[in-house]
Amino acid sequence: MNIFRFAGDLSHVFAIIILLLKIWKTRSCAGISGKSQILFAVVYLTRYLDLFTTYVSLYNSVMKVLFLATSGATVYLMYVKFKATYDHNHDSFRIEFLLVPCALLALVINHEFTVMEVLWTFSIYLESVAILPQLFLVSRTGEAESITSHYLFALGSYRALYLLNWVYRYMVESHYDLIAIFAGVVQTVLYCDFFYLYITKVLKGKKLQLPA
């Protein structure tokens, strides 16, 4: 554990809180990609299957339960409780184009060819691109609400902070994980255009608009 990883985890939790509060308070999931939320749920399910078999620390276990529970709750709110407010028409990204390549890549490039390791690797690859349906939805609708923009910024900050975590671990512990670093770089790059627009638009009180 180091300050960058801890800050990244806090940013991740903050993003989830923003999202759930947005949906619950407005009683609507408009502007939120259900497909991205399904992908994130798949990420946590495949990554944290070791919850009941491997104990690392109380902090680690609590975070695993938190991410599993909140991702499930988000999917439930979007597809069951507030289903009528979900924008099916604009949320049309073909997630099979992300799931299949990530699965194949995990089978080919992994640290160890075991079920748990391949699933963990798959979750790393999938998380790096899971935000694409959300960015696609924003580009199709033309703009994002401020609260949705805050959610995306917090989520992107989480991955950027985790990259700093890997730099720190390499410098201090001489430890690195090429798969996690590569996926983190890909995910952070996907957010770059959004970060720029967030800083130049949203923080100045304007609506965020992504190019179609």
TrEMBL record:
It comes from the Eukaryota. Keywords: Endoplasmic reticulum, ER-Golgi transport, Membrane, Protein transport, Receptor, Transmembrane, Transmembrane helix, Transport. It is found in: Endoplasmic reticulum membrane. Pfam families: ER_lumen_recept. It is a multi-pass membrane protein. The chain crosses the membrane at residues 62-80, 92-113, 119-139, 151-172, 178-199. One of its GO terms (molecular function) is ER retention sequence binding. The keyword Endoplasmic reticulum applies. InterPro entries: ER_ret_rcpt (IPR000133). One of its GO terms (cellular component) is endoplasmic reticulum membrane. GO terms for biological process: protein retention in ER lumen; protein transport; vesicle-mediated transport. Belongs to the ERD2 family. This is ER lumen protein-retaining receptor. It comes from Drosophila erecta (Fruit fly).
